[in-house]
Amino acid sequence: MKKISKSLLLKLPLISGVSIYSLAHYLYRYAFKRADPISQLDESMKPYESEYYYYLNWLQHYPQQELWQLKSRSHATKLVALWLPTSPLSSKTVIIAHGYKDNKETMANLAYMYHHLGFNVLIPDNRGHGANNSPYISFGWWDHYDYLVWLKLVQKRTGLNSQIYVHGVSMGGTISLLLSGEKLPSTVKGIISDCAFSSLLKEFEYLIRSKVKVPVKPLLKIIDQINQRKNGFSLTKINSLNQIAKSKVPIFIIHGANDKYVPTAMGYENYQAIPHQRKLWIVPHAAHALAFWVNPQAYQQQVKSFIQETI
Protein backbone atom coordinates (compact mmCIF):
# COMPACT_ATOMS: atom_id res chain seq x y z
CA MET A 1 0.00 0.00 0.00
CA LYS A 2 1.36 3.39 -0.95
CA LYS A 3 1.33 6.01 1.79
CA ILE A 4 0.02 9.56 1.86
CA SER A 5 3.10 11.62 1.11
CA LYS A 6 5.03 13.00 4.09
CA SER A 7 5.92 16.06 2.00
CA LEU A 8 2.22 16.68 1.41
CA LEU A 9 1.48 16.57 5.15
CA LEU A 10 4.33 18.94 5.91
CA LYS A 11 2.81 21.46 3.49
CA LEU A 12 -0.55 21.45 5.26
CA PRO A 13 0.08 24.45 7.56
CA LEU A 14 0.93 26.58 4.50
CA ILE A 15 -2.09 25.38 2.58
CA SER A 16 -4.39 25.85 5.57
CA GLY A 17 -3.59 29.54 5.53
CA VAL A 18 -5.89 29.80 2.52
CA SER A 19 -8.97 28.30 4.21
CA ILE A 20 -10.05 25.07 5.85
CA TYR A 21 -12.50 24.62 2.98
CA SER A 22 -9.78 24.91 0.33
CA LEU A 23 -7.54 22.58 2.33
CA ALA A 24 -10.30 19.95 2.51
CA HIS A 25 -10.79 20.06 -1.27
CA TYR A 26 -7.04 19.82 -1.82
CA LEU A 27 -6.73 16.79 0.44
CA TYR A 28 -9.78 15.14 -1.07
CA ARG A 29 -8.36 15.42 -4.59
CA TYR A 30 -5.06 14.01 -3.41
CA ALA A 31 -6.40 11.10 -1.37
CA PHE A 32 -9.48 10.06 -3.33
CA LYS A 33 -8.61 10.63 -7.00
CA ARG A 34 -7.98 7.43 -8.90
CA ALA A 35 -4.50 5.97 -8.51
CA ASP A 36 -1.82 6.70 -11.09
CA PRO A 37 -0.09 3.74 -12.78
CA ILE A 38 2.69 2.38 -10.58
CA SER A 39 6.04 3.57 -11.94
CA GLN A 40 8.31 2.52 -9.07
CA LEU A 41 8.27 0.60 -5.82
CA ASP A 42 7.50 2.34 -2.55
CA GLU A 43 10.67 3.11 -0.61
CA SER A 44 9.77 0.58 2.10
CA MET A 45 9.81 -2.20 -0.52
CA LYS A 46 13.33 -1.49 -1.82
CA PRO A 47 14.99 -4.18 0.38
CA TYR A 48 12.66 -6.75 -1.19
CA GLU A 49 12.89 -5.52 -4.78
CA SER A 50 14.36 -8.68 -6.33
CA GLU A 51 11.77 -10.91 -4.64
CA TYR A 52 8.96 -8.56 -5.68
CA TYR A 53 9.94 -8.73 -9.36
CA TYR A 54 10.38 -12.50 -9.16
CA TYR A 55 6.76 -12.88 -8.05
CA LEU A 56 5.58 -10.29 -10.58
CA ASN A 57 7.31 -12.14 -13.43
CA TRP A 58 5.68 -15.39 -12.27
CA LEU A 59 2.25 -13.72 -12.28
CA GLN A 60 2.67 -12.11 -15.69
CA HIS A 61 3.66 -15.42 -17.25
CA TYR A 62 1.10 -17.61 -15.52
CA PRO A 63 -0.15 -19.78 -18.40
CA GLN A 64 -3.88 -20.23 -17.68
CA GLN A 65 -4.75 -16.72 -16.52
CA GLU A 66 -8.01 -15.06 -17.51
CA LEU A 67 -9.18 -11.44 -17.24
CA TRP A 68 -12.69 -11.23 -15.84
CA GLN A 69 -14.71 -8.08 -16.60
CA LEU A 70 -18.22 -7.04 -15.68
CA LYS A 71 -20.27 -3.98 -14.79
CA SER A 72 -21.12 -2.86 -11.26
CA ARG A 73 -24.70 -2.82 -10.01
CA SER A 74 -25.04 0.77 -11.22
CA HIS A 75 -23.58 -0.24 -14.63
CA ALA A 76 -21.31 2.82 -14.44
CA THR A 77 -18.16 1.12 -13.13
CA LYS A 78 -16.16 -1.53 -14.97
CA LEU A 79 -15.07 -4.27 -12.58
CA VAL A 80 -11.91 -6.16 -13.55
CA ALA A 81 -10.14 -9.10 -11.91
CA LEU A 82 -7.36 -11.53 -12.79
CA TRP A 83 -8.23 -15.24 -12.51
CA LEU A 84 -5.42 -17.75 -11.96
CA PRO A 85 -6.92 -21.27 -11.88
CA THR A 86 -5.00 -24.36 -10.87
CA SER A 87 -4.76 -27.29 -13.26
CA PRO A 88 -6.82 -29.35 -12.66
CA LEU A 89 -9.26 -26.86 -11.14
CA SER A 90 -9.10 -26.82 -7.33
CA SER A 91 -12.13 -26.60 -5.06
CA LYS A 92 -10.17 -24.02 -3.00
CA THR A 93 -10.04 -20.35 -4.03
CA VAL A 94 -8.71 -17.17 -2.48
CA ILE A 95 -9.81 -13.68 -3.46
CA ILE A 96 -6.98 -11.23 -2.76
CA ALA A 97 -7.70 -7.55 -2.05
CA HIS A 98 -4.87 -5.09 -2.71
CA GLY A 99 -4.02 -1.91 -0.82
CA TYR A 100 -4.28 1.82 -1.38
CA LYS A 101 -2.85 2.96 -4.75
CA ASP A 102 -1.70 -0.57 -5.55
CA ASN A 103 -3.29 -2.89 -8.12
CA LYS A 104 -3.88 -6.57 -8.80
CA GLU A 105 -0.28 -7.17 -9.93
CA THR A 106 1.18 -5.90 -6.65
CA MET A 107 -0.38 -8.93 -4.96
CA ALA A 108 1.75 -11.35 -7.00
CA ASN A 109 3.55 -12.54 -3.84
CA LEU A 110 0.32 -13.69 -2.20
CA ALA A 111 -0.93 -15.19 -5.46
CA TYR A 112 2.29 -17.22 -5.64
CA MET A 113 1.94 -18.33 -2.02
CA TYR A 114 -1.66 -19.47 -2.43
CA HIS A 115 -0.90 -21.20 -5.73
CA HIS A 116 1.64 -23.34 -3.88
CA LEU A 117 -1.02 -24.07 -1.25
CA GLY A 118 -3.24 -25.48 -4.00
CA PHE A 119 -5.62 -22.52 -4.43
CA ASN A 120 -7.16 -20.87 -7.44
CA VAL A 121 -6.57 -17.11 -7.14
CA LEU A 122 -8.77 -14.14 -8.08
CA ILE A 123 -7.30 -10.62 -7.74
CA PRO A 124 -9.62 -7.67 -8.49
CA ASP A 125 -8.58 -4.11 -9.21
CA ASN A 126 -10.36 -2.07 -6.53
CA ARG A 127 -12.34 1.11 -7.23
CA GLY A 128 -10.13 3.82 -8.70
CA HIS A 129 -7.17 1.45 -9.21
CA GLY A 130 -5.64 -0.37 -12.15
CA ALA A 131 -8.13 -1.29 -14.88
CA ASN A 132 -11.15 -0.31 -12.76
CA ASN A 133 -12.53 2.87 -14.34
CA SER A 134 -13.98 4.55 -11.24
CA PRO A 135 -12.75 8.18 -10.95
CA TYR A 136 -12.60 7.92 -7.16
CA ILE A 137 -11.12 5.57 -4.58
CA SER A 138 -13.78 4.35 -2.15
CA PHE A 139 -11.41 3.00 0.56
CA GLY A 140 -13.36 -0.26 0.69
CA TRP A 141 -16.97 0.88 0.84
CA TRP A 142 -18.18 0.21 -2.71
CA ASP A 143 -15.42 -2.37 -3.12
CA HIS A 144 -16.78 -4.72 -0.48
CA TYR A 145 -20.09 -4.87 -2.35
CA ASP A 146 -18.15 -5.65 -5.53
CA TYR A 147 -16.54 -8.57 -3.72
CA LEU A 148 -19.98 -10.08 -3.14
CA VAL A 149 -20.24 -10.23 -6.94
CA TRP A 150 -16.78 -11.79 -7.23
CA LEU A 151 -17.76 -14.41 -4.64
CA LYS A 152 -20.77 -15.43 -6.72
CA LEU A 153 -18.67 -15.70 -9.87
CA VAL A 154 -16.03 -17.82 -8.14
CA GLN A 155 -18.71 -20.10 -6.72
CA LYS A 156 -20.26 -20.42 -10.18
CA ARG A 157 -16.87 -21.44 -11.60
CA THR A 158 -15.78 -23.81 -8.82
CA GLY A 159 -19.11 -25.25 -7.62
CA LEU A 160 -21.32 -25.20 -4.55
CA ASN A 161 -18.91 -27.43 -2.61
CA SER A 162 -15.98 -25.05 -3.03
CA GLN A 163 -14.05 -23.41 -0.19
CA ILE A 164 -13.34 -19.69 -0.53
CA TYR A 165 -11.14 -17.36 1.52
CA VAL A 166 -10.70 -13.59 1.22
CA HIS A 167 -7.26 -12.17 2.02
CA GLY A 168 -6.67 -8.42 2.05
CA VAL A 169 -3.69 -6.18 2.79
CA SER A 170 -3.98 -2.64 4.23
CA MET A 171 -7.00 -1.03 2.52
CA GLY A 172 -7.64 -4.52 1.12
CA GLY A 173 -7.62 -5.85 4.67
CA THR A 174 -10.34 -3.35 5.52
CA ILE A 175 -12.30 -4.48 2.45
CA SER A 176 -12.15 -8.06 3.74
CA LEU A 177 -13.39 -6.97 7.20
CA LEU A 178 -16.23 -4.86 5.75
CA LEU A 179 -17.18 -7.90 3.67
CA SER A 180 -17.23 -10.12 6.77
CA GLY A 181 -20.34 -8.35 8.07
CA GLU A 182 -22.42 -9.03 4.97
CA LYS A 183 -24.52 -12.13 4.30
CA LEU A 184 -21.93 -14.46 2.80
CA PRO A 185 -22.42 -17.77 1.02
CA SER A 186 -21.59 -20.90 3.02
CA THR A 187 -18.65 -21.51 0.68
CA VAL A 188 -16.75 -18.65 2.40
CA LYS A 189 -14.65 -20.36 5.06
CA GLY A 190 -12.57 -17.49 6.41
CA ILE A 191 -11.21 -13.95 6.19
CA ILE A 192 -7.54 -12.98 6.47
CA SER A 193 -6.93 -9.28 7.14
CA ASP A 194 -3.39 -7.89 7.13
CA CYS A 195 -2.72 -4.40 8.63
CA ALA A 196 -6.25 -3.05 8.15
CA PHE A 197 -7.45 0.25 9.61
CA SER A 198 -10.42 -0.10 11.94
CA SER A 199 -11.96 3.26 10.95
CA LEU A 200 -11.10 5.47 7.99
CA LEU A 201 -11.87 8.68 9.86
CA LYS A 202 -9.68 7.57 12.79
CA GLU A 203 -6.91 6.68 10.34
CA PHE A 204 -7.10 10.09 8.63
CA GLU A 205 -7.14 11.84 12.00
CA TYR A 206 -4.13 9.86 13.18
CA LEU A 207 -2.11 10.63 10.03
CA ILE A 208 -2.86 14.35 10.09
CA ARG A 209 -2.32 14.82 13.83
CA SER A 210 0.97 12.91 13.70
CA LYS A 211 2.45 15.43 11.25
CA VAL A 212 0.86 18.86 11.62
CA LYS A 213 -1.38 21.04 13.77
CA VAL A 214 -4.62 21.83 11.96
CA PRO A 215 -8.27 21.77 13.13
CA VAL A 216 -8.75 18.10 12.24
CA LYS A 217 -12.41 17.57 13.14
CA PRO A 218 -13.78 20.43 10.99
CA LEU A 219 -11.41 19.41 8.18
CA LEU A 220 -12.63 15.81 8.18
CA LYS A 221 -16.25 16.93 8.34
CA ILE A 222 -15.83 18.92 5.12
CA ILE A 223 -13.94 16.05 3.45
CA ASP A 224 -16.81 13.74 4.41
CA GLN A 225 -19.33 16.15 2.88
CA ILE A 226 -17.30 16.30 -0.34
CA ASN A 227 -17.15 12.52 -0.47
CA GLN A 228 -20.90 12.19 0.02
CA ARG A 229 -21.43 14.41 -3.03
CA LYS A 230 -18.78 12.84 -5.24
CA ASN A 231 -18.61 9.23 -4.05
CA GLY A 232 -22.10 8.65 -2.67
CA PHE A 233 -21.43 7.60 0.92
CA SER A 234 -20.34 8.95 4.29
CA LEU A 235 -16.85 8.10 5.50
CA THR A 236 -18.38 7.09 8.83
CA LYS A 237 -19.52 3.89 7.08
CA ILE A 238 -15.94 2.67 6.70
CA ASN A 239 -15.76 1.19 10.17
CA SER A 240 -14.49 -2.37 10.33
CA LEU A 241 -15.59 -2.83 13.93
CA ASN A 242 -19.28 -2.42 13.07
CA GLN A 243 -19.05 -4.98 10.28
CA ILE A 244 -16.91 -7.46 12.24
CA ALA A 245 -19.54 -7.48 15.02
CA LYS A 246 -22.03 -8.92 12.50
CA SER A 247 -19.66 -11.47 11.01
CA LYS A 248 -20.23 -15.20 11.13
CA VAL A 249 -17.01 -16.48 9.56
CA PRO A 250 -13.60 -17.11 11.17
CA ILE A 251 -11.23 -14.12 10.93
CA PHE A 252 -7.44 -14.02 11.09
CA ILE A 253 -5.92 -10.63 11.95
CA ILE A 254 -2.29 -9.98 10.96
CA HIS A 255 -0.51 -6.74 11.87
CA GLY A 256 3.09 -5.56 11.96
CA ALA A 257 4.49 -4.77 15.40
CA ASN A 258 6.30 -1.75 13.92
CA ASP A 259 3.43 -0.37 11.84
CA LYS A 260 3.50 3.42 12.20
CA TYR A 261 1.15 4.09 9.28
CA VAL A 262 -1.87 2.05 10.40
CA PRO A 263 -1.03 1.75 14.10
CA THR A 264 -0.76 -1.74 15.54
CA ALA A 265 -3.44 -0.77 18.06
CA MET A 266 -5.96 -0.93 15.21
CA GLY A 267 -5.04 -4.58 14.67
CA TYR A 268 -5.87 -5.30 18.30
CA GLU A 269 -9.15 -3.36 17.95
CA ASN A 270 -10.16 -5.43 14.94
CA TYR A 271 -9.26 -8.65 16.72
CA GLN A 272 -11.18 -7.78 19.88
CA ALA A 273 -14.32 -7.04 17.85
CA ILE A 274 -14.51 -10.57 16.40
CA PRO A 275 -17.41 -12.37 18.12
CA HIS A 276 -16.42 -15.97 17.27
CA GLN A 277 -13.49 -18.05 15.94
CA ARG A 278 -10.51 -15.74 15.62
CA LYS A 279 -6.74 -15.66 15.32
CA LEU A 280 -4.19 -12.88 15.87
CA TRP A 281 -0.59 -12.63 14.73
CA ILE A 282 1.44 -9.52 15.57
CA VAL A 283 4.51 -9.82 13.35
CA PRO A 284 7.80 -8.81 15.02
CA HIS A 285 9.81 -6.07 13.25
CA ALA A 286 7.23 -5.64 10.47
CA ALA A 287 6.34 -2.13 9.33
CA HIS A 288 3.18 -1.35 7.37
CA ALA A 289 2.20 -4.03 4.81
CA LEU A 290 5.56 -5.79 5.23
CA ALA A 291 4.50 -8.79 7.33
CA PHE A 292 4.88 -11.17 4.38
CA TRP A 293 8.18 -9.68 3.24
CA VAL A 294 10.03 -9.81 6.55
CA ASN A 295 9.41 -13.57 6.87
CA PRO A 296 7.61 -15.23 3.92
CA GLN A 297 8.01 -18.74 5.36
CA ALA A 298 6.42 -17.82 8.69
CA TYR A 299 3.66 -15.91 6.90
CA GLN A 300 2.78 -18.91 4.75
CA GLN A 301 2.83 -21.23 7.75
CA GLN A 302 0.51 -18.96 9.76
CA VAL A 303 -1.95 -18.69 6.85
CA LYS A 304 -1.76 -22.44 6.20
CA SER A 305 -2.47 -23.16 9.87
CA PHE A 306 -5.53 -20.88 9.83
CA ILE A 307 -6.85 -22.59 6.71
CA GLN A 308 -6.35 -26.05 8.24
CA GLU A 309 -8.32 -24.93 11.31
CA THR A 310 -11.25 -23.52 9.33
CA ILE A 311 -11.67 -25.35 6.01
Question: How is this fold's topology laid out?
Answer:
Layout: H1 6-16, H2 20-32, H3 49-60, E1 66-71, E2 78-84, E3 92-97, H4 108-116, E4 120-124, H5 141-158, E5 163-169, H6 171-180, E6 188-194, H7 200-209, H8 216-231, H9 240-244, E7 251-256, H10 264-273, E8 278-283, H11 291-294, H12 296-310
Parallel strand pairs: 3-4, 3-5, 5-6, 6-7, 7-8
Antiparallel strand pairs: 1-2, 2-4
Helix pairs in contact: 2-8, 3-4, 5-6
Written account of the structure:
- The chain is α/β, with parallel strands linked by helices and 311 residues long.
- It has two domains: 1-32 and 204-236, no CATH class; 46-199 and 238-310, Rossmann fold (3-Layer(aba) Sandwich).
- Helices cover 43% and strands 16% of the residues.
- The chain has twelve helices and eight strands.
- It has helices at residues 6-16, 20-32, 49-60, 108-116, 141-158, 171-180, 200-209, 216-231, 240-244, 264-273, 291-294, 296-310; strands at 66-71, 78-84, 92-97, 120-124, 163-169, 188-194, 251-256, 278-283.
- Strands 1-2-4-3-5-6-7-8 form an eight-stranded mixed β-sheet, with helices on both faces.
- Helix 6 (171-180) links the parallel strand 5 and strand 6 (188-194).
- Helix 2 (20-32) packs across helix 8 (216-231) and helix 3 (49-60) crosses helix 4.
- It is globular and about 60 Å long.
- The protein starts with 5 loop residues before the first helix and ends with a helix.
